[in-house]
TrEMBL record:
Gene Ontology biological process terms from the UniProt entry: isoleucine biosynthetic process; L-valine biosynthetic process
Keyword line: Amino-acid biosynthesis, Branched-chain amino acid biosynthesis, FAD, Flavoprotein, Magnesium, Metal-binding, Thiamine pyrophosphate, Transferase
Cofactor note: Binds 1 Mg(2+) ion per subunit.
Coiled-coil residues: none
Cofactor: Mg(2+); thiamine diphosphate
Name of the protein in question: Acetolactate synthase
Gene Ontology cellular component terms for the protein in this record: acetolactate synthase complex
Keyword Magnesium: yes
SUPFAM superfamilies, alphabetized: DHS-like NAD/FAD-binding domain, Thiamin diphosphate-binding fold (THDP-binding)
Pathway: Amino-acid biosynthesis; L-valine biosynthesis; L-valine from pyruvate: step 1/4; Amino-acid biosynthesis; L-isoleucine biosynthesis; L-isoleucine from 2-oxobutanoate: step 1/4
GO MF annotation list: acetolactate synthase activity; flavin adenine dinucleotide binding; magnesium ion binding; thiamine pyrophosphate binding
InterPro entries per the UniProt record, alphabetical: Acetolactate_synth_lsu, AHAS_TPP, DHS-like_NAD/FAD-binding_dom, THDP-binding, Thiamin_PyroP_enz_cen_dom, Thiamin_PyroP_enz_TPP-bd_dom, TPP-bd_CS, TPP_enz
Keyword Transferase tagged: yes
């Protein structure tokens, strides 16, 4: 996935704050020294020096020495209710702000509770630094109380990790962790520090020297490859710009718009790229993939050229890989060379930062247009527009008058607007939020794309709101996801982080139920989340838990909405509350399904616009 280059404003600011001397030289800030301090004090001063303003964490025995100097620090600490919440909050902070998120936990179970958010951040290329306490050095390997080999456990799911054995190394390791997390392809970095190292006496010197042999991400693309890509774009009759989350990481949205308008090509934005290109733009076809728009999926299948920018040909986009975009030449630009050719052979591979690559493509294409004129894509657009007209994204209202989840999310988007930040958990509500919220700006859509982590939304929204207090932040959650991490609402209430939560409550694990409906003959094994009353007359749900009362117990305002005519007023009421978190229990029907859909393992040619409705584009070539 193409990602933030060191030359972006975010990275320049970060490096200026760090003031680090790299192996290539150049010191930004004057040196700061402190003699005869503890390793814990050195670590806190290192965090201050790299510009950390916020840490999410939970103390415990092994990391307790670090919490004492943190008490006097300028760094704000948010005390979470579970370490998983700290990790997801750091991720939400990073995704919403573009800065490195930071979380802390103690040894053993504290550290292992960070495994899921670390894996989540690794899959979605999110820059976070996790600091964990470890048992004293002499106890490592003895199965001591609350010992866990967190380095070994997280090695496959971190960009890099460190075990600090010498307190003198602390400033260097912290500087290196932040450098690694935020440069090249971003990702999580873990720093594990034994308790005795935190307690030992050391000297603090800043800036340290970063020494990472072999780590030198390629950010500037090769000119020959860019020129070759420009030539195939110029020659294409049915091109598509296939945009992934790397464009957002590289702060390349403006450059992408310039490229799109220069080429006149249609744009599709993956689940991780929503907001990278305005939904309202005439060239935007929507999201591709398993639950993408018919037009976006059809365009990829029938394209003669795919220009993949910061995307990784994920299985949820390609469907059955062997039948994906069978007639397309592939231009694949990515900052991570390991991604190029991993799933789909690239005819024109480009290793580099997305922003630099797109900028150079614009220059090369402008020169070609001056020499050869602009390609005529009118025939391609005529076909695309026919698909858009025939298969618009929509939904049916329930015949029994129940509240439609798609309608709730559509109205939430209209009322909260494009400046709000939307966080989603995983499942049906995630797909509806990706489909029916109008995304116009970068960093307004946060979700767990690669790992698909239930329970992501509430703590991620907490992190986003803490990082961007001026923004309205909505967590769109399912009743299943919400019950995994809602305890962080207590954190929000106590810490003054007034997020808003829309619980799409269908009483079931909705996406699993949908699959059971479609592929398991309606045998709903263990997907119902609450019992229902029995006996004659109308069947009423038994609300366990009652989300309104639960929200109130956690220090929030609790609201409930069960009728379509009350949706706007309920959302408006929530928008007026700015001093506390708000939880809205939207009680919706249990049978709504996400469409369009490509079944797992099926070809994108087999997309269904709705149940048993197959688009005609699969019947033959354009």
């Amino acid at each position: 996935m193409s990602t933030t280059a060191p030359e972006t404003p975010t990275q320049v600011a970060a490096e200026a704050t760090i003031g680090v001397e790299t192996t290539e030289g150049s010191v930004v800030d004057p040196a700061r020294e402190h003699r005869g301090i503890t390793g814990a004090q050195s670590l806190v001063r290192s965090l201050e020096a790299v510009g950390v303003d916020l840490v999410f964490g939970l103390p415990g025995g092994a990391i307790l020495p670090l919490y004492d100097p943190l008490f006097d620090s300028s760094v704000r600490h948010v005390l979470v209710r579970h370490e998983q919440g700290a990790g997801h909050a750091a991720t939400g902070y990073a995704q919403a702000t573009g800065r490195v998120g930071v979380c802390m936990a103690t040894s053993g179970p504290g550290a292992t509770n960070l495994v899921t958010p670390l894996a989540d951040a690794y899959m979605d290329s999110v820059p976070i630094v996790a600091i964990t306490g470890q048992v004293a050095s002499g106890f490592i390997g003895t199965d001591a109380f609350q010992e866990a080999d967190i380095r070994g456990i997280t090695m496959p799911i971190t960009k890099h990790n460190f075990l600090v054995t010498d307190p003198a190394e602390i400033p260097q390791r912290i500087a290196e962790a932040f450098h690694l997390a935020s440069t090249g392809r971003p990702g999580p970095v873990l720093v594990d520090v034994p308790k005795d190292v935190l307690q030992a006496t050391t000297d603090f010197e800043w800036p340290p020297r970063i020494d990472l042999p072999g780590y030198k991400p390629t950010t500037r693309p090769h000119g020959k490859q860019v020129r070759e890509a420009a030539a195939v774009i110029q020659a294409a009759e049915q091109p598509v710009l296939y945009v992934g989350g790397g464009v957002l990481k590289a702060e390349a949205s403006d450059a992408l718009r310039e490229l799109a308008e220069l080429t006149g090509a249609p744009v599709v934005t993956t689940l991780m790229a929503r907001g990278a290109f305005p939904d309202s733009h005439a060239q935007h076809l929507g999201m591709p993939g398993m639950h993408g728009t018919v037009t976006a999926v059809a365009a990829l299948q029938k394209a003669d050229l795919l220009v993949a920018l910061g995307a990784r040909f994920d299985d949820r986009v390609t469907g059955k890989l062997e039948s994906f975009a069978p007639g397309a030449t592939i231009v694949h630009a990515d900052i991570d060379p390991a991604e190029i050719g991993k799933n789909r052979k690239a005819d024109v591979p480009i290793v580099g930062d997305a922003k630099e690559t797109i900028t150079e493509l614009v220059s090369a294409l402008t020169a070609l247009h001056e020499q050869q004129g602009r390609p005529d894509l009118s025939g391609w657009w005529a076909q695309l527009d026919r698909w858009r007209e025939t298969y618009p994204l929509g939904y049916d209202l329930p015949e029994d008058g129940a509240l439609s989840p798609q309608y709730v999310i559509e109205r939430l988007s209209a009322i909260a607007g494009p400046d709000a930040v939307y966080c989603a958990g995983v499942g049906q509500h995630q797909m509806w939020a990706a489909q029916f919220v109008q995304y116009e700006k970068p960093r307004t859509w946060l979700n767990s794309g690669g790992l698909g982590t239930m329970g992501y939304a509430v703590p991620a929204a907490m992190g986003a709101k803490a990082g961007r207090p001026e923004a309205t932040v909505w967590a769109i959650d399912g009743d299943g996801c919400f019950q995994m991490t809602n305890q962080e609402l207590a954190t929000c209430a106590i810490e003054g982080i007034p997020i808003k939560v829309a619980v799409i409550n269908n009483g079931n694990l909705g996406m699993v139920r949908q699959w059971q409906t479609l592929f398991y003959e309606g045998r709903y094994s263990n997907t119902r989340l609450h019992n229902r009353g029995s006996g004659g007359g109308e069947i009423e749900p038994i609300r366990i838990p009652d989300f309104v009362k639960l929200g109130e117990a956690l220090g929030c305002v609790g609201l409930r909405c069960e009728r379509p005519e009350d949706v706007d007023a309920t959302i408006a009421a929530a928008m007026e509350i700015t001093d506390r978190p708000v939880v809205i229990d939207f009680v919706v029907g249990s049978d709504a399904q996400v469409w369009p859909m490509v079944a797992a393992g099926a070809s994108n040619d087999d997309i269904l616009a709705a149940r048993d409705v197959r688009p005609v584009f699969t019947e033959g070539p354009v």
